[in-house]
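agent: user wants the structure for Scarecrow-like protein 34 isoform X2 from Raphanus sativus. delegating to structure tool.
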Amino acid sequence: MDPNLSLNGFEYLDESLFLDSSLDFDRNPSTFFLSDPLLQPDENDSSNTLLRYVNQILMEESAGDKQSMFYDSLALRKTEEMLQQVITDSKAHRGSVVTTSSDASGSISSSRGPVNEIVVKSMFSDAESDLQFRRGLEEARKFLPNSDQWVFNLERPLVESDLSRVKKSHEREVLDLEEVRSSKQSATNVEDVEVTDMFDKVLLLDGECDPQTLSTQQTLSNNKTKSKTKKAKKKKKSQVIDFRTLLTHCAQAISTGDKTTALDLLLQIRQDSSPLGDASQRLAHCFANALEARLRGNTGPVIQTYYNVITSVKETASDILKAYRVYLSSSPFVTLMYFFSFRMILDAAKDAEVLHVVDFGILYGFQWPMFIQYLSGRKDVPRKLRITGIELPQRGLRPAERIEETGRRLAEYCKRFNVPFEYKAIASQHWETIRIDEFDIRPGEVLAVNAGLRLKTLQDETGGEETCPRDAVLKLIRKMNPDVFVHAIVNGSFNAPFFISRFKEAVYHYYALFDMFDSTLPRDNQERVRFEREFYGREAMNVIACEEGDRVERPETYRQWQVRMVRAGFKQKPVKAEMVELFREKLKKWRYHKDFVVDENSKWLLQGWKGRTLYASSCWVPA
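agent: tool returned. relaying tokens verbatim.
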């Protein structure tokens, strides 16, 4: 057995494996630690009985907590001596007691000797006890009120006025308690209504089947225009510093073990970077945190804790939803992904009785309310919707609670739009181990598999796995034999096993994202700051600071994914030119920035910013 055990990513040394096997553990624990092995236990000796009982409790607590044998022997010894002195006082007339002593090595021996009666009398004499009691009473009186309001006349009988006073007081307390409860309940209801309204504004379509988030586009653009002059001044100042070069040199110093140079460069970067600056300053601030975490040499869970500490902001679901709304209003990437998957799924499910969607990485199910709303009242769509949501389990006793809550929320939308609905949640840490029968695929239904931006977190060949989980999940989907498989990816090249190569590609990728926000949102927009911190910041931290199994952000290019999909047994469906042109018209109608790019290449729908492809979507069927 390996003594180095792993628990949630941490390695610890199981000291119980290194205990001396030569010790005789068959002995009575109480006699081994506390009593004299040369003496026979006396049933009438209450001191030995009490000591054995206390020792048994201590041993049970120690075993229950699974502590090693390296406990605090000095504290235990002090407790035993104090207990022994109390017992000695009650048996002072016997003239002798059992005392314990320990040597420097921690072994405990026993001895029997006379009691020092002078010490006992000085510690437990009646005069001394009476004096201590009187002193304590005098000190306590200082904290009592001067009046006699705390003195009760027990001889005076209760009259009717007293009873009515007590009754009114009790009724007042009950009313106050009910008022507090009702206020809390009303506050909870108000919060639920606000969250529901926010979900509707973010996740549903308007009368023209356009996202409602676009209503905030004009406000954001106006705020952007107002801050243009101030931003131009800051931009001139930040252009002097080449953050990309500084970040790359710092990464090289860390990779070669030159901590002195790395710290100097980090200090220089932090002096000029800012989470509220321009794109380069925000990128530098984000990557400096990740480089510092890598310099510390921590593991994955510790790095996650480190990131939580440096952000030190607890976000609610409403805060994340607000940030997500601003992201949708400033960027068309996710919206076009949703529309692409809707079109591909509905093309395969025309006039179907039941549509079964298996969503790998459903999380909060943000894309499906739009889909449910679109199904409402149409005749050429499936009459019943089944969704199987697959997600990583959350910690605690209810691993599937989050995705079950997603199912309840989607069920409310289906009830609202009169769409027959059925939902199943699957919480699995390793998606490649899910069995086919867990999906409950039924004959006669149209089966659609959706994977939106989540397969990038699966381990690949560089993760140290004997079998590639990424390919295993694709083979699992192929065995399901779906009618359509919609796959959306983050188009990134920062999945190399070599740190410097991965770091350089990550710099270019995330700079494009920060620059996109810098051109579409004000710099002091709190939702923008929150989104960059909670999404881009965490991703960059994982890409830069983690290695091997701890690194879960492993995006690949759409060409690399194309090779994997063909190898898994899929055939790609073409992207119609009419769809690409429709999406381009949507960008103009929705008034998105002119530098957003929509194109088609190798049967992939590509989306990017200023010529750099950031996202790609494709549709597949079994070959």
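agent: one observation worth passing along. The longest strand covers residues 612-622.
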